[in-house]
Each structure stands twice: as C-alpha cells, then as structure tokens.
Amino acid sequence: MSKLENNMNREEFHVSSLVVLTQPPLRHRLAEQIAALEGAEIHAVSDEGKLVVTLEGSSQRPIMAAIDAIGAMPGVLSAALIYHQFDELDKQCEDMP
C-alpha cells in the first residue's frame, strides 16, 4: 500500500474540553443548548455559572465551529479551550470483527 493510499484509509478522532463561563441565572438553559450540539457533552455546572464541556468530532473543523457557536450564545461570557487531542483511526482496523 502506498503512503497516499495509507493516508486515505485513516480518519481522525478529536476530543476537546472547555470551560464555559455563563451568566449564572442562564447556566442551566445554556447547558441544555450546548448539550444539544452534535458531539457536545456537559460534565459539570456550577452555581457561579461555569460549565465543563467536552466536544468530540471527526476533525478540528466541527470542534472549532461548536466553540464559535457556544461563544455566540446569548448569556455566554467566555468559552476557553482547555485541552485538545486527536488520534488517527485506521479504517481497516475498524472494519475488522
């Protein structure tokens, strides 16, 4: 298999975590809106309005789009990327039983 063919058989899996600072009275509504985004999961909501969020996606592009969407939500004061990791997945390995 050539290098080009090998690279074409690989997919990426991205995971990011962020802390989202919200206006405290809106924290639960915003947590629901964020959780509705594809690949998003809420892990904690504090009384002070801080949300711990993870985002998963097949590339960096949907992760960044989700971060932009979160930052643009009314009531969100900031969305800070804390961690980002990606791994390459081999399609041939995924297809094996």
Write the layout of secondary structure elements.
Layout: H1 3-8, E1 10-22, H2 27-35, E2 40-45, E3 50-57, H3 60-72, E4 76-90, H4 91-95
Secondary-structure element pattern, one letter each: HEHEEHEH
Gross CATH architecture? 2-Layer Sandwich
User: Could you tell me the strand content as a percent range?
Assistant: 35-45%
What general outline do the C-alpha atoms trace?
A: elongated
Distance between the termini: 22 Å
Number of helices: 4
**Strand order within the widest sheet?**
2-3-1-4
**Radius of gyration, Cα only, in angstroms?**
17 Å
Give me the secondary-structure category.
Answer: alpha+beta
Q: How many individual β-strands?
A: 4
For the biggest sheet, the summary is:
4 strands, antiparallel
Q: Kindly state the mean pLDDT as a whole number?
A: 87
List the domain count as a whole number: 1
Helix-residue proportion: 25-40%
- Under CATH, the topology can be stated as Alpha-Beta Plaits
Instruction: Identify the CATH class.
Output: Alpha Beta
What does this entry look like structurally?
It is a single chain. By secondary structure, the chain is of the alpha+beta class. The chain has one domain (12-95): Lrp/AsnC effector binding domain/regulation of amino acid metabolism (RAM) domain (Alpha-Beta Plaits), CATH 3.30.70.920. 34% of the residues lie in helices and 43% in strands. The protein contains 4 helices and 4 strands, in the order H-E-H-E-E-H-E-H. It has helices at residues 3-8, 27-35, 60-72, 91-95, and strands at 10-22, 40-45, 50-57, 76-90. Strands 2-3-1-4 form a 4-stranded antiparallel β-sheet. The longest helix has 13 residues, at 60-72. The two termini are 22 Å apart.
